[in-house]
Amino acid sequence: MADISMAALTKVYPGGVRALDGIDLTIADGEFFALLGPSGCGKTTLLRTLAGLETASSGSVGIGGRDVTALPPGRRDVAMVFQDYALFPHMSVSDNIAYPLRIQKVPGATRREKAAQTAAELGLTDYLDRRPGQLSGGQQQRVALARAMACHPQVFLFDEPLSNLDARMRLEARTFLKRLQRELGVTTVFVTHDQAEALALADRIAVMESGRIRQLGTPAEVFRYPANTFVASFIGSTPMNLLDGQVAGGRIDVAGALLPVPEGLEEGLAEGEKLVYGIRPEYLGLAEGPAEGALRGAVRVVENLGSAQLVTLEGESGFVQAVVDEDRRLTPGEIGHAVPRRDRALLYRDGELLNRA
Ligand code: ATP
Hints:
The protein is built from 8 helices and 21 strands.
């Protein structure tokens, strides 16, 4: 069992930056867990504190039931893969993979055998004698993974391991990583600022802001029910429309458009109270003409997404984006009527979600 537990984990850097602010979190054995958030929110600090590369200011870290808060990195049984892979340029692929085993004083022949075995699992057999500089980015990334795997750690810690790959390689490496993690069943913590990557890979995601966790949940939960407007604006490949509105006669008045109240929220809204109406562009359809409960606006920008189009309308409520069918003809300046899907609409009061999953 290699679950990870953090209790009231806090890290204040010299100079006073509170990079972690009382993190309470348990990651299950075998889980693929993503830490997601904007630059500077504390993701890397959290990962480095799990690895033992940073010392916590207060609070504790447990791995596999052991309190490791005071243990150095080498005694935590974790392997970390860095963004830049941190391979040794002067060593062969084989020696790079075997390096942690050398540190553990595993005899030479066993080391080479284990390195060759791990390399074979990752499709690196043909490259064992090459140096990292003679490999593509994707191959270097596999060498870094092989090095992490070679000593069979209890926990993998990944700090944006895909960010140096081009878009296509990145997708391939993502699928590969997910399959590998499933096969090995090693508890994995993955840091990324790419929400699509977190949604695609993780069993659960923690969305962080300013050293705190703003939401913890499965990708489906975090996507469908962002707990607050911070998470809502962060998750999703096209940002959610967050529109200022007001309760009016059993509807939400957004700049004159009377939108339906999301299911289950009809009770408990006070007439006239101010709320934020959240609807993803994917759940906003363009009607053929004027329609009841539609947001009205002039077409300003049309972006081709391949199999669909992203349309930006400008109306009384500001800018609203909708994803529409690839065949729909749209001309800049024409008036569009965007109708929200009621079963996907969200309401936020003081920035916090009112819908219940
Ligand atoms: P990024 O995505 O940009 O890597 P991050 O979410 O990983 O960001 P951290 O690197 O953990 O964020 O940084 C969290 C905060 O702590 C930031 O405000 C950062 O400036 C600060 N910080 C990080 N390392 C140090 C350090 N060694 N000394 C002082 N402050 C630091």
